[in-house]
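User: Show me a protein chain along with its predicted structure.
Assistant: Here is one chain, sequence first, then structure tokens.
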Amino acid sequence: MKKSIIILLLYLSANTLFAQFNLVPNGDFEAYSSLPTDYGQANLAIGWNNVNGDYTNSTGSPDYFNTLSFIGAGTSFGVVAMLPFSGNGQIGLVTIQQGLFREYISSQFISPMNIGQKYSISFYITNGIDNFYTKGSNNLGIHFSNNPLYQAIDESISVIPQIEIDTIIYFWNEWHHFSFNYTADSSYNFITIGNFKDDAHTLVSSYGSNGAYYFIDKIEIYTLLSITGEVAICKGQPDTLRMYGDTIVKWADSLNPGIIIATDSIITIAPTVTTTYKATTAYDTAYFTVHVVIPPVINLGNDTVLCPGTGQDLQLNVQAMPFTSYTWQDGSSGLSYDVNQAGTYWVKATINSSCFASDTINVAYSSSPYVNLGNDTTLCTGDTLILNANYPNASYQWQDGATSPIYYATHQGMYWVKVTNQYNCHTYNSITISYNPSPLINFGNDTVLCKGQSLLLNATNPNSTYLWQDNSTDSIYNVYLQGTYWVKITNQYPCSSSDTINIAYSLNPSIPTISQIGNILTSSSAIGNQWLLNGQVITSDTNQSYTITLPITDTSCYSLTVTNIYGCSATSDTICYLPLGISEVINNNGIYIYPNPSKDNITIETNSYKEQRLEILNLIGQTVYTIYINKKAVINTSAFAKGVYILKLSSDKETVVRKFVKE
């Protein structure tokens, strides 16, 4: 475990903080097997050795200096030994001579480190007074191991030191003290000091020459008084506190600081509130606070179904709680987790090994509803397009708010629908509809014609073709017979329209007759009557009988038109009344007029060979022509004005009146 370095310029007495023995044997290099006589004799300092086993005056061999030997003053290759920080002995080593070599010193501890124990590690170092190695370097490191390290010849040892100074060390002709704390994570038994990085990863000062050489003295590793245990526990949960650094200890807590609660190095406590514990030895005092917290509660929610590709990915969240760590199913430890695929997700909230909570959620993904309204299209006016968005267990929203799965499109525009399934997954689809004009056709209502009538059906439209019920293709059709008539019209787009009409024929009513009693005229038909005077409709006179207003002051000719429910009609003969008060009845008894109507000539024949007076009167009673005939007469009427005329034939016994029409 690599630790950051704390540089201390203040030297503190070991006896004030630490227990009594240094794990490093002969850490001040005062004990020796014999005094050094040359360079490279680091093994003469009892307990120390060179990891490559070379103790000759060569590269890759650290040096032992002692002021009691001539080597302490320095000769040979120009290293002038710096006086030790204390006593007589010290070690010197090269941390880098680029491309050439580096040196390491190593020793076995008096006893292995204890796992979890905190240690104080310190040493003194200087560049000394050196006329050959005048550079400085970084990466001076301390490596703890369970077994000795080995250096092949003089290259760097490729391990990761637990302690490393990553800044360039350059203290010329003065000692500096480095001190830091370290908690053992294994029962380490060996210490090795040197530069464990290769040349490419080592910083070297820009000033100086050759390489970096350092003197080291007073290497000390002491146990520190420390307490381990659970920093936080759930209420009601026990906690075990272990004190490292001494076996003689007095325990007290912050609630009753004057009462000793235990004297063993290990105690079990179960506080109900957050409590600080104090462990006191002859050399030090340590404090440890146990936080009593509420057990964690986690709720990831109910199992759920998400929709793919709609931005509905789920974020699972937990609330930050003091002294709580979180572990998700994939090993991540954040306060949130983004779900983007189906699966089972869980999180565990841990305060300590005995106080934790967890929750699990199953997340599935539903396929989005499928909907296809079809391609954009063009319809004909009057057409309806049925849009079907039906999907199982779904709801619908159309562009106008309609909610049925079926929509009837009748106008041009864009139509869209949102289809949402039971899991709230939705899909949109749209279609644009345009309209071309359809032909216009309207035959009107079915109708009834009168005998002899015809009806012209007109289907004319621009740029169109026609198909009638009899496969004829003209734009018009003349109806003479009853039946069903239809036409289909197709224009250039092509849009089609059609219409149908049913035509029936009605017989004309029987020709009505008029009977007279006094001044009352009566029709032979009970219904459909319309009385006429001198050829003009008598308003509101539609009863079966009509009463003539007396006295008659002018020639008055009455006739009758009978119309059935289909509008077909027949007209009676005319009865004329003259101011003379003579009733003249038109009938066919013994008199014949033809042709009637006439254009140029009219022929009158009678059954009598006696001479009779023939008068022709207009409708206002004026005589326009007079002649005497017996049996037959032909009269030229070409000079007569068009209209209805009264023909009066008189004898000594009777007067007969007839009507004829001049065309």
